[in-house]
Structures are given as structure tokens and as C-alpha cells.
Write a structure and sequence with these properties.
Length: 553
């Protein structure tokens, strides 16, 4: 599957946007190596995601329902960003009554467009480019990297706007033009209105302030002030991440951001447990397994906020295909360097994935003696340590405080950054043992659950988390930390953490140096689906890959 990732990244091409009546096209040739549509739909296990609101006041419940309306608008804008024909196809396929048409519509809703996000971005409905355009709907479909970079060289005054996270690029005669999101998407002003309306029902002063600043940010595409205010929220029962946030959808440069909405209810009790990790973020930074010269004085430890939340509503980017289970935001290093970051773990989403996916995978692949060690708490706290580890390491390239690691890594950034967060998430368990916070038994549970979890994520296909898990799995197998006997997998506990430390050192150093070519080498060497791995993945085909979620809003 992932061999074709490299083909996927390479393909650019023209897209028909001639307004032809879009219908299910029997000619859409789906790669018959990949499973038929019914099986792909079945890989997303239907699942109702509930969040307990019983402890909220009537005004708070009212506010939550208005915020969900804002979320639906963010969801609608995301449909406009994924690919040029996504929304048109959504409208036309919704009218079809034949089995195939209904299946195409169902799968289109899961993928936010006619391209399969697990199977190499392959088109499964409508007419047009066969693979998901890496330009998404942010750049002209026929714009290549070469043309874009050549144009910017000869028009340096437009560089900032054309490369901005918050603009789309269009052709304007022979020129290129950047259009800010708040001008490109008419839903933006309605969305901002909804945030202000919700603020009228808010008795939490800090949260009210954030909602008003966020509305202003959405109208202007300047998010700094509202991100700073978001980091000042401490005791809020309700939280919302809304607007253009992550850059995964922009396959060309990872510059442009995608609209999403996470409407969240804090799990007060579960959040309390987390404060331990918070208190030790700076210790983790000081103990990073790479050259001392790279280690920062502080990771903004005490500023970081960790919280366990339950998802009330997901819309847009975070709800596409494989659902998000946690987030580490904001992405603006100007904010995180001053305020730290906010790590939010989505408890109800994580637990649903553990029950429906991790446990069945473990039963299929792991040595039976390890099954009693597959542990839900170990799964959720690994996710927490993953998010904490996004804060560790450098945000700016060593020796160049103007160049962010994100910018230096270009389209490879997401995969390398997710590898770093995962492998450090595992590595830091070593410190929990040394600090006697966790015992040997727990650490074994964490390692075994991590192993099953690796197989959960590599089935996500050609996206950052899938690639990150593939790199870890291949590296640890090649190094002998993960073993196979009689067709069953286990861990070599004697060398496991040494090898985990080796991979952590490798990706941390690549980021600190902003070394794009070294990053490329890691992906080429360890980002492959070997035949053995392909057979193991095949053996999991009856186990869901992810969830097809419904919410209360
Ligand atoms: Zn992550």
C-alpha cells in the first residue's frame, strides 16, 4: 500500500471542471488490488460518540448547541478545500437510489470527497483526476511546484501571501493571486456570528473572551491573539477548537490549513490524573536522547495544559476518514514558545478505537502470552505522552531562530513530526519507571499495547500517522526489538528501550538540523510496506480500520 505513496506524492495532472452532470461513473477504474467499495465502507465501524453533558447548566447546554452550528459551517468550508468536485458530487450522489450510488455517497461522506484517504488517494466516484490532487483545492489544479517556485522568485513581493497558511492561490491571467480564506469562503462571516451568539450564553469570562477573539480572528485570518487567549483558559468545562488549523490536506507544500471544529466537554476527574505529566515536561526535554547542544532550556513545561476531553461534535479536517484521538495545539511556535501548548486527549474516541480495533488486532497478531497485557489505560496514557512529546525537541532549526522546523521539512514535516511524537511517547515511559511513577508490569503493558497500536495506525494508508508508524515498525523490527516466532509477534525487553532511543535520536536530530534530505532518507529506508508486513496487514482485513462516527449534533 505505501509503496504507492511515493507514486501518490509524485502525481500532478489536470482536472475536468467543466460542470458536466456528475454521476456515478462505471468507468472510474478502481485498482482491483484494493478491496471493493462495500469492504472499504465496512472498514469504518459505525459508532455513536456520546459526551455526557449532565453536569452542565441550561445556559451551557444552549451555548454548546450554538457552537455545534458554528462547527457545521467549518465542516462545510472543509468540503470546499479537499478537492474541486467534492461538494458538487456530494449534492449529486445524495440523489441516487441504486446500491452502488448509495455506497459511493456513503464513502464520499467518510472521505470528504471522491478520493480514498486510505487507498492511495484513489478516486472511487465521479469523473476526473484518478488520484487525489496534492494541490487539494488550495492551488490551481495544473500548478506545479516548479512553476510556483519560479513565479515566487520573480514576484518576491507576493511570497508571503502566496505561501500563507490562510490563503488560496488562483490564476489571474498570467499572474498568481492569493485570496484570504475570509474572502474565499462566504460561510466565514456566519461562522463568526455564531461564535459571538454563543458567547452571549457564556458565564466563564475567559472562555467568553476567547470566543469573541476567535470570531474576530476568523473574520481577519489573524489567529495569534485568539490562540494566546485560548492558552489562558484553565477551568473551562467546555472547549472548542475551530477555524483553519492543520496543514495535512495541502499535499503540495503542507502550507495551507484546513477548517475543522472540535467541540469538547472536559472530563474533570480524568484530567486531574494528568497533572503529573505536566510537571515533568521540562525533565523530559532535559533527558532527550540527542546531542546536548540541541536541548532547550525549557519546553515551557509548566505552561503546558493537559486535559482529557470527551467529543461532543467533530466537523471538517479532524472528522475526515480516520478520526483524530488527540491534539497538540496551537501550531504557532510564537505562542507555544511563550505559553507552551495544550494537549487534549479525546477519551470517548480513544476508548471506542481501543475496543473495536486495538484488542482484535492484538488477538490476531501477538503472542498469546502477551494478550493479558493489552491495556486500555496504557493505550490512552500513551496517546497523552505522544501529545506531550510534540512539545519536546526544537520548534526552530538549531542556529536559525527564524526558520521553523515545519517550514524546513516542507511536505515531509507531518510524517517526521508524528514519528518523533510517537517514538518519544514510548521512550518517556523509561523515565516513568526510573521515577517510580509506574512499575515494571505497567511498562510491559505500555510496550505490548504500543506494538498492537502500531498495526492500528499503519492501516491508515498514505498519511502522516500511517507513515510514522510504518517507520517505527520497520526500524524496530530491523533492530530486533520486535521479534516474530511461530507467526506471532513479541518484544525483546532487553534491547527494546535502547532501540527506541536510537530512533528518537535520529528524528530529533533531523528536525533540529532542519535536514530535508536526511528526512527523505528515513522515509525511503523505513517507510515501505515489506511483503511480510503486507501479509500481516492482509490478515487483519476483517478488523475495522477506523470509525464511522455519529454525534449528538
Ligand atoms: Zn501527533
Amino acid at each position: 500500500m505505501l509503496r504507492s505513496l511515493l507514486i501518490f506524492i509524485a502525481c500532478t495532472g489536470l482536472f475536468l471542471s467543466c460542470g458536466k452532470k456528475l454521476e456515478t461513473n462505471p468507468n472510474t477504474k478502481m485498482n482491483n488490488q484494493n478491496p471493493p467499495l462495500e469492504e472499504r465502507i465496512a472498514a469504518y465501524s459505525p459508532c455513536k460518540i456520546n459526551a455526557d453533558l449532565s453536569h452542565l447548566s441550561a445556559r451551557q447546554k444552549k451555548m454548546v448547541s450554538i457552537l455545534a452550528e458554528a462547527g457545521h459551517l467549518a465542516d462545510k468550508i472543509f468540503w470546499k478545500q479537499t478537492s474541486p468536485d467534492a461538494l458538487k458530487l456530494k449534492d449529486s450522489l445524495s440523489l441516487l437510489t441504486d446500491e452502488k450510488g448509495k455506497n459511493q455517497y456513503k464513502y464520499l461522506l467518510i472521505n470528504y470527497g471522491p478520493y480514498d484517504r486510505i487507498f492511495e488517494g484513489e478516486r472511487f466516484a465521479g469523473i476526473g483526476q484518478e488520484k487525489k490532487p496534492e494541490n487539494a483545492n488550495y492551488y490551481p489544479q495544473d500548478l506545479s511546484k516548479e512553476e510556483f517556485e519560479k513565479y515566487i522568485k520573480s514576484h518576491p513581493e507576493q511570497k508571503a501571501d502566496l505561501e500563507s497558511q490562510y490563503t488560496i492561490v488562483v490564476r489571474d491571467g498570467v499572474k498568481l493571486k492569493a485570496i484570504p480564506f475570509h474572502e474565499a469562503y462566504p460561510e466565514v462571516s456566519k461562522l463568526a456570528d455564531k461564535l459571538e451568539e454563543a458567547a452571549n450564553y457564556c458565564d466563564d469570562k475567559a472562555f467568553k473572551n476567547y470566543l469573541i477573539l476567535r470570531a474576530k480572528a476568523i473574520r481577519t485570518d489573524d489567529y495569534y491573539e485568539s490562540d494566546m487567549a485560548w492558552m489562558d483558559l484553565k477551568d473551562n468545562d467546555i472547549d472548542i477548537v475551530i477555524g483553519p488549523i492543520e496543514n495535512y490536506e495541502d499535499g503540495l507544500y503542507n502550507y495551507k490549513t484546513a477548517y475543522e471544529c472540535s467541540l469538547l466537554i472536559k472530563d474533570i476527574e480524568a484530567s486531574k490524573e494528568l497533572q503529573f505529566f505536566n510537571a515533568h515536561i521540562d525533565d523530559f526535554e532535559q533527558k532527550l536522547p540527542y546531542e546536548k547542544k540541541y536541548i532547550r532550556k525549557s519546553a515551557g513545561g509548566s505552561n503546558n495544559i493537559l486535559a482529557i476531553m470527551n467529543v461532543a461534535y467533530f466537523g471538517g479536517d479532524c472528522n475526515k476518514a480516520v478520526k483524530t484521538i488527540a491534539s497538540s495545539l496551537p501550531n504557532d511556535p510564537r505562542v507555544t514558545d511563550v505559553k507552551g501548548g495544550k494537549k487534549q486527549m479525546f477519551k470517548n474516541m480513544m476508548e471506542a478505537k481501543f475496543d473495536k480495533i486495538v484488542v482484535p488486532i492484538a488477538k490476531k497478531l501477538l503472542d498469546t502470552s502477551l494478550l493479558p497485557f493489552v491495556d486500555k489505560t496504557a493505550f490512552t496514557s500513551f496517546v497523552t505522552l505522544h501529545e506531550v512529546s510534540h512539545t519536546l525537541g526544537r520548534g526552530f532549526v538549531f542556529g536559525n531562530d527564524t526558520l521553523s522546523v515545519r517550514k524546513s521539512m516542507k511536505e515531509l514535516y507531518s510524517a517526521i513530526e508524528e514519528t518523533k511524537a510517537d517514538i518519544l511517547g514510548m521512550y518517556n515511559h523509561k523515565h516513568l519507571l526510573e521515577m517510580k511513577v509506574k512499575d515494571e508490569d505497567y511498562i510491559k503493558r505500555a510496550c505490548v499495547t504500543y506494538l498492537a497500536g502500531l498495526y492500528r495506525s499503519i492501516r491508515f494508508g498514505a498519511e502522516a500517522h500511517g507513515m510514522a508508524n510504518l517507520i517505527q515498525l520497520n526500524f524496530l523490527r530491523v533492530q530486533g526489538a520486535i521479534k516474530k516466532k511461530d507467526g506471532k509477534l513479541s518484544i525483546d525487553e532487553k534491547i527494546f528501550f535502547d532501540k527506541v532511543g536510537d530512533l528518537a535520536r535520529m528524528v530529533l536530530t533531523v528536525e533540529a538540523d532542519g535536514d530535508y534530505n536526511a528526512a527523505k532518507k528515513i522515509i525511503e529506508q523505513y517507510g515501505r510496506v515489506t511483503d511480510e508486513l503486507s501479509a500481516e496487514i492482509e490478515s487483519l482485513k476483517d478488523i475495522p480500520r477506523d470509525l464511522d462516527t455519529k454525534y449528538n449534533y
